[in-house]
Each structure stands twice: as C-alpha cells, then as structure tokens.
Specification:
- By secondary structure, this protein is of the alpha+beta class.
- It has two domains: about 150 residues, 2-Layer Sandwich (VC0802-like); about 200 residues, Vaccinia Virus protein VP39 (Rossmann fold, 3-Layer(aba) Sandwich), CATH 3.40.50.150.
- Helix content is about 30%, strand content about 25%.
- It contains 13 helices and 19 strands.
- It has a nine-stranded mixed sheet, covered by helices on one side. It has an eight-stranded mixed sheet with strand order 2-3-1-4-10-9-8-7.
- α3 packs across α5 and α6 crosses α7.
C-alpha cells in the first residue's frame, strides 16, 4: 500500500488542554487539516504524515484510525470492535523484539531477543532503560512503563478515553473489545485504542507502540520532573522568532531547555514501529528525508535563537543537567566542543549543525542569575544577553520549598527578582501556585490551566514590558 496521495486519518492524544498547542505545532510543520477534540487531535493526511509524525513533540501517542462510527448504544462497540480486529488480523506475525536491558548490579547492558513479548510487567521488572553504550543507529524497540489502562494477559492492550460522552463505562467498552478479540483468536501484540468524543467513536492502532514522552536522553531527574511532551508544549506555546536566548533559572534536570533545542533544530524524536508500518506500507527513506527537509525549512524563522541556558541553585541538578545534555548529544548524533569549565558554570558548543548553538550550565541562585550572566567577565566571550530579547521559562519548585511563610520564602523572592531583572524578556512560569500573579503584581499576563501528571498547574505568561 504505497499510494502517496491516499488519505488516512490519525489521532494524536495529548495532555489535557494541550491539544490546541499540538495543533499549533502541526501548523508550524505545514499540516493544517487538524481538528481539536477534548484531549486529542484528528489529522487527515496522506502517507507523508507517518514520516512527519516522528518529529512531533507534543503528542503522547499517535494512532492510525481504522474505524470511525457514530455510537447510539454499547452494542455498536461490538460492531466497531469486529471491524477493527478484522483489519488488525492482517498485521499478525511473530515479531522479533530487540530489547536492551540494563543490569543494575553489574552495570552492563544485556541484549536479548524475544520472538514474542509475553507480558509487559515482566519487561518492566527487568528495568528497561536506555544505556550510554547503545548504538542508537540500530533499530531498538522501546517498551515504556506508562501504557493503557486495560490489558489482558494474552497480548490484548487497549487505550480507552471517553470525552464528553454518555458512554462513560470504560470497563464495559473494554469487555466488549476483549470478547471480540478472543472470538477472532488474535495473538498480535499491537497497541489498539478507542476514543469516544460525544457520540463518535474512533478506533485504531498505535503506530509507535510506546509513549512518545520517552526521548532517551533523560536518565536523571529532579524531585518533580516535567514530562518531555508537556515541556515541548510550553516552549511551542511561548516561542517567538525574535528570541536570542532561552533561560530556565530553576532548570532541574534541564528538560525544558533541551526540548526547546530539539524543537528549534527539528529533531526526529520518535521511532515508528516498523514491524507494523512495513505491514501497512513500504517505508521509504526518500519520504523521510523530504519530511525532515520540509520541517527544517519552516523552522528557519527561529534560527536567531542560538543560546540555551540552564541554571539551578542545587549543585546536584547542575551536574545532572550536564549529564542529560551529554546523553542528548549522544542520542541524536551531535558533535560538541567543551569550551569552559569552572566550579559554577560550564559552556558547550554544538557544531555539527548548520548553525552553531551554545549551551551554558550555571550553578547559581536564581536571585543572582541576571547579575551572574551579565557581569561575569569569564562569560563575556560566550554569552551576552544584555538588551536582547529572550524567553525565561521554568517549571517552578514544588513542595517543601514553598511551605515557608511567603514573605520569607527564598524561592519566591528569587522568582520575583528574576521577573524584575528580565522584564524586557517574555517570562513563562508553570506552577501549582494559582495566586502567583498576586505575588508578582504584574497585570500584563495570560494564564492557562494544565496538568503536570496528575497535578493541576497554571501556566502564567508575561509579555515584555516594552510590548
């Protein structure tokens, strides 16, 4: 099946309230036939979308829709399930899985081949992780620990999401699909999904087979890490072609800054399940190259952004963010040069791309970060942010750091100082403090309710004062 002009329907799941940002990302890439629903997007596109999908950074999972129908009763799900599994039957095969395990005791990697994955739980117990020694040019199936709500012991896995629908019993829907799956005597371990919005039900197959927030570079995290897909959404929602630099003054493990970099360079962050896709169509490297070239040409408007700064008061986070950066460089096949290293900062340059990018990691209190970046004589040859437009964006501290009295809280005092010092820049903060603007006392702002995992948070955006 290789008709490039044939239309397909794809469903992209996102975090709650991120679907409009996902649509914005797709439009940046030149994909306009997108409809937003509550928690997912529907895309009508030709076969090239398979290749574009590997660059999408805000979606949690991507499904190709094989069945779409209007639902009037639960009996209709039986019909949809039968039609879906009739189509899935053509994709069955005893796929060989190549899996990389990390032996926690010996610190060595073990590569095992399995003809069939018997149980995901068994794989999770084997501590599936990325290893520095892995050749990322090899094809590797990544099995993630965050998957569907329902799975049967015999390879049946089903994601279910009911949005604004009277059919809210996910257990009933699961039972209907499982019964039909068993009646068809299927054994394929494909990840299927059914999504109901109002009275329309979409059913399809996950074209990747794993949660797309897994990038492969973040081995170490802080206390309250942000998912890579949400970090990308924050950046894409906030970024402008006018920015010269991006700074996260509470960077933690560096995720937000790294995701900004991956977006700007148009990195391919995900790997299609080629076992499934090659059953569906013939993967064409020329189409892959065309998609990458088209995306990179559209991202050239952000080429002014070349400086990426991670700063944190925690010495451990200072070291962890650098370790994750080196893993990112290895994962995406980039070449860097080590420019400067002192006790309180480190400078790297990425030179393997058309544009040279600079990364600065600083061990500094956010209260003093502006002074550090503008007055440190050792940094002047590398970073100059005075009178330049930039994006200050951060996932603010949670928990113990915020339990003190507000007037004596050092993290909040540092944030207020950052907001004042960088008033000529756009400032964006993700926080569980709904009252943050009352503390900062800035009337020029917008806010958006989001979810960082299960935590309800607010994304505050402050435009530069001179706008």
């Amino acid at each position: 099946m290789q008709n490039k002009n044939e239309k397909y329907k794809f469903l992209l799941t996102t975090a709650s309230a991120v679907e409009s940002i996902c649509k914005k990302e797709l439009e940046i890439y030149g994909i306009y036939d997108v409809k937003c629903h509550n928690g997912f997007c529907i895309v009508d596109a030709d076969i090239s979308f398979f290749y574009y999908s590997q660059h999408i950074k805000t979606a949690n999972r991507i499904y190709i829709i094989l069945e779409q129908m209007q639902i009037t009763s639960y009996d209709d799900f039986s019909v949809q399930a039968a039609n879906l599994f009739d189509k899935m039957a053509g994709f069955e095969r005893e796929w060989q899985k190549k899996i990389v395990f990390k032996n926690m005791e010996e610190g060595k990697e073990k590569v095992k081949y399995r003809n069939k994955i018997e149980s995901r739980n068994k794989i999770y117990n084997d501590k599936l992780e990325y290893e520095d020694k892995v050749d990322y040019n090899d094809k590797i199936e990544y099995e993630d620990s965050i998957h569907c709500k329902y799975q049967h012991e015999k390879n049946f896995k089903l994601d279910i999401a009911c949005k604004k629908s009277e059919f809210k019993s996910e257990k009933t829907i699961y039972a209907i699909f499982l019964k039909e799956y068993q009646r068809k005597n299927l054994t394929a371990s494909l990840n299927s999904g059914v999504f109901i919005d109002d009275d329309i039900s979409f059913a399809g197959i996950d074209i990747f087979g794993y949660s797309l927030h897994i990038r492969g570079y973040r081995k170490f995290t802080g206390v309250s890490p942000i998912k890579e897909t949400l970090a990308s959404a924050l950046v894409i929602h906030s970024i402008s072609k006018d920015f010269d630099f991006i700074l996260d003054p509470f960077c933690g493990s560096g995720t937000i800054v790294f995701e900004a970099f991956l977006f700007v360079i148009g990195a391919k962050v995900s790997q299609l399940n080629l076992d499934f896709c090659n059953s569906y169509f013939t993967y064409n490297n020329e189409y892959d190259t065309e998609a990458a070239s088209a995306i990179n040409s559209r991202l050239k408007k952000f080429e002014k952004l070349r400086v990426f700064i991670c700063s944190d008061i925690d010495k451990e986070m200072f070291e962890i963010s650098q370790a994750n950066f080196k893993r990112l460089v290895n994962k995406f096949g980039l070449r860097i040069t080590f420019e400067k290293q002192f006790t309180d900062f480190a400078v790297f340059k990425v030179k393997s791309l058309e544009i040279e990018y600079l990364f600065l990691f600083s061990y500094c209190d956010a209260y003093d970060v502006y002074y550090f970046l503008t007055k440190n004589s050792l940094l002047k040859n590398f970073v100059n942010i005075e009178k330049k437009q930039g994006l200050i964006i951060s996932n603010l501290p949670y928990g113990k750091r915020l339990k003190d009295d507000i007037k004596q809280n050092k993290s909040l005092a540092a944030l207020r100082r950052v907001d004042k010092d960088f008033s000529l820049c756009k400032r964006c903060y993700l926080t569980n403090m709904k009252w943050l603007n009352e503390y900062l006392k800035n009337g020029n702002f917008k806010k958006r309710k989001l979810y960082n995992g299960k935590i309800e948070v607010t994304f505050f955006q402050y435009d530069p004062d001179h706008y």
